[in-house]
Amino acid sequence: MGQLAYADNNRNEALKWYRKAADLGDDEGQRNLGAMYYNGDGVPKDMVEGYMWLLLGVNKKDEAGRKRLEALGNELTAEQRAEGERRAREFQPTKSKFKPKKKK
Q1: Out of 2.40.50, 1.10.238, 3.10.20, 1.25.40, which CATH number does the structure's domain 2-89 have?
Q2: In the structure, what pLDDT confidence band is assigned to residue 8 with cuts at 50, 70 and 90?
């Protein structure tokens, strides 16, 4: 949903869906939300908040993502990186309210 809204240039709707996915711990939602904050795309630019979400969203197998994250981290001061890392450590995903139906 977020990607469709983003493609339609509806940043508010994209933000809503990326935030929901990110809060649930979805790595793609976290990366997309991080990019929006880092670039100030549809939200006030907040490089630390963006860095935090990107840290959470880049998985260990994603070589390109790790390199991009490193490059973005190099744009921040040591204090900004430390703050982003602290926020990422403290992040607790919300629990989904979705409950699958039990099979009979």
Answers
A1: 1.25.40
A2: confident
